[in-house]
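Collaboration report, partner site 2.

Our partner group contributed sequences for two proteins of shared interest, and the home lab folded both. The records are reproduced in the order in which they were received, starting with the first partner submission.
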Amino acid sequence: MIENPPVSFLHRLADEASKETLPRFRTTLAVEEKFKPGYRFDPVTLADKEAEKVLRELISSVYPDHAILGEEFGETGTGPWKWVIDPVDGTRPFICGIPVWGTLIGLTLEGRSVMGMMSQPFTKERFWGDQEGAWAQDSAGIRRMKTRSTTDLSRAILHTNSPDRYGEFPDVNFERLRNSVQMTRYGGECYAFAMLASGQIDLCLELALQPYDIVALIPIIEQAGGVVTGLRGERPEAGGHVLASANEMLHERALKTLRG
């Protein structure tokens, strides 16, 4: 049996990334703009770039045979193991001073996500999943995470980061789902997925994700008892349209509603 790297290495990576992101949070930063199809404004800052550099350097020094895919510097290396990283997932809230951004650190084996962490250094929170379970760490200590048992859509809390782009995807019946749930909230970025794993949110729906937006979150959600797939029920590691749900029954009901 092939063993995953130790969770302590995820924490080590998060520590190093935090040294680059946290001192730059809520400061005056130069913001560059990248081109991203479907987005009028796609920002990147020095925090994104410097954090990814230190993550890549540390991974390469400890696991030189592992491939790396990152948002800022693309893909390097080949092989069955691949680290999939987003140094600042949620650059928009980062530059607005809102602490719902996070550093995403995921690892795939033969294309399947096997462990991952979301680190929020400003709130001093970390959420991670591995073969042993899903865990959250904050000022109160470490606790095991478990998703909610909600199965009725009318009692469910739905999160999506923004409703702006749903008009571009008429095959995704967001309005029908929004009108079926108890409440819909916006703007939580990767933090919303962590809250789903923590039992605070029932559904998270996102459009046109990249692998580095979701790979780290998959083990956290799955090991907490949740389900995360594409809208046809496929594995979500490649990104695209992604739905995460607190449990299998709720997931099937939400998918059926989205398909119209």
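Second partner submission, folded after the first:
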Amino acid sequence: MSDPRSTPSIFTRGAVDLSALRPAPARPAPSGPPAAAPPAADGAPQAPPAAIGAAVIEVTEANFQTEVLERSLSTPVLLDFWADWCEPCKQLSPVLEKLAAEGGGAWVLGKVDVDANPRLAQALRVQGIPMVVAVVGGQLVEGFTGVLPEAQVRQYVDAVLKAGGVAVTPAEDPRLDAADDALMTGDLDEAEAAYKKILAETPQDHAAESGLAQVELYRRIQGVDAATAMAKAEADPDGLAAQQLAADIEVLSGQAPEAYQRLVALVKRTSGDERDEVRKHLLSLFTVAGPDDPAVSEARRALARALF
């Protein structure tokens, strides 16, 4: 997920003037004994907003200044706008509360009942619920409306924490563990289905993209005798199928840089549809390694030079 500080689409900082939500200065209290809290509708005294848990609090118009604006100067605050009648809210809120508990105090979840706090809802432009936004350093980081899969909610939380300067340790993803286990045991169909499911829920998940590319790679070399394939590639340096298969074998043998060099050299010697076929094959091998691999970065530069 992109850093909220540099993504204008859904993570726009300062989109709302939060200073408008600061309450007016309190009038001097009259002399005499302190007044009791005003009674609620049923006649019982109103209690101050209570903490639902160590990392989950109730946010109201009265405590927004202290619990959100001031707190956000040191700890990011995510706001969950909800209502009793909202069924989707009942799906998203437990996910947010779970992640807040797992956060160990790195961030705080503030729950805002839109029916009880219409001024907050209006000021933050709530047009539908559930809606999640964040406040970091006293500034708004826009979020999302509606129910998202837990993995995408985690990504949003991580992005907010990074915006607040909080170091984020990637959480283990049981979905990836299951997909990787299927891949390691050779169940390519199950692994493929699992990786595709992750990508449907979390587009551009680099680990899942890499796993799916590995599935395709393993399928290409099934039943192949490595020594024979490498000998054919040696004898036919311009044969697309032979060179691509040799590159696959090199990647699986821990010789990825050599595989990249092989295909970049082939790109230089080809043109038209053949060149595009080799280029796409090379990109699939880059995906196996992932975008942060230094060898991939170097090979991408070499590919660019070969193409242009």
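Feedback sent to the partner group on the second submission included the following. Residues 1-17, 23-50 have pLDDT under 50 and may be disordered. DSSP finds twelve helices and six strands in the chain.
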